[in-house]
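Re: [ENG-882] Designed sequences occasionally contain unexpected residues at chain ends

Forwarding the minimal case from QA. Structure tokens:
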């Protein structure tokens, strides 16, 4: 085995960032909750860019169905704990990496974690836990890097003073304690997010509507495609880097979509345009679900 040297490991970063910025990355710690698809791609990029400390949290194990897009899912890791298997892979990239690995206990330690982590990557697809994360991040002044449920890569940066997605998207969970969440409420949250994606992007042009109908109805798991998922994780990693280095973020609390089919960045529409598009989207979704 070759001896590991951090300076040699990060030498080719220089030019994209300077030596002082590399030192800042080495001194940073980032919390990544969910290390499967987007979270796994993001955490790989963070480790390879030389972030010195990472806290990984996940409750799942790798499955065969993860092989199509999750960077640390291999036939060797199927059946293994995602956080532990990811940590083992990251240590083979950077054995000097300071890693903290958490399983299901992470949710009970959220306030403790956010007191020491200023930047968080949300790689979960659990709406209830996402709401809890955002509420806790607001209390502790942490920034959350996230993405939409969308067939297009996207990224959101929610700073300490920004409106939570719960308020911005009009979730029915607003003002309700987590123990009061029910399945109907969480389904409505998901539908609000899908509506936002349809209003503010060209996502409907890039999905099979029959599959989308089953997804919205809750009879099919979320669709995933490796280039989309991995690109999203890398966009998230870029936004983490900007936060750590004090560079201006490209995304805000509303986020943006990158359309690799048309090579366009799609940003949220102004309110008057969005209102018209929302009316059209609601009519479209009603017809879609009734067909």
């Amino acid at each position: 085995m070759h001896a590991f040297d951090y300076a040699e490991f990060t030498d080719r970063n220089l030019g994209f960032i300077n030596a002082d910025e590399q030192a800042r990355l080495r001194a940073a710690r980032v919390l990544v909750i969910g290390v499967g698809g987007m979270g796994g791609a993001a955490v790989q990029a963070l480790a390879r860019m030389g972030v010195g400390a990472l806290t990984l949290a996940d409750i799942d194990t790798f499955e065969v169905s993860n092989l199509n897009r999750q960077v640390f899912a291999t036939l060797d890791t199927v059946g293994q704990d995602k956080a532990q298997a990811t940590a083992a892979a990251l240590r083979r990239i950077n054995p000097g990496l300071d890693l903290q690995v958490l399983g299901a206990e992470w949710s009970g330690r959220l306030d403790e974690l956010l007191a020491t982590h200023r930047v968080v990557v949300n790689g979960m697809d659990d709406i209830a836990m996402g709401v809890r994360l955002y509420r806790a991040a607001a209390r502790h002044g942490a920034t959350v890097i996230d993405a939409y449920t969308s067939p297009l890569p996207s990224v959101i940066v929610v700073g300490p003073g920004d409106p939570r997605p719960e308020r911005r998207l009009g979730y029915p969970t607003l003002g309700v304690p987590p123990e009061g969440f029910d399945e109907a409420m969480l389904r409505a949250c998901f539908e609000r997010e899908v509506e936002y994606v349809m209003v503010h992007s060209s996502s409907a042009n890039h999905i099979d509507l029959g599959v989308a109908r089953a997804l919205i109805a809750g009879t099919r798991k979320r669709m995933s495609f490796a280039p989309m998922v991995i690109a999203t994780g890398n966009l998230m990693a870029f936004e983490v880097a900007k936060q750590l280095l004090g560079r201006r973020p490209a995304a805000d609390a509303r986020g943006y979509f990158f359309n690799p089919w048309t090579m366009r960045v799609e940003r949220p529409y102004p309110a008057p345009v969005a209102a018209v598009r929302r009316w059209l989207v609601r009519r479209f979704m009603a017809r879609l679900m009734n067909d």
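QA comment: On inspection the terminal residues look reasonable. The chain has eleven helices and eight strands. Proposing we downgrade this to a documentation issue.
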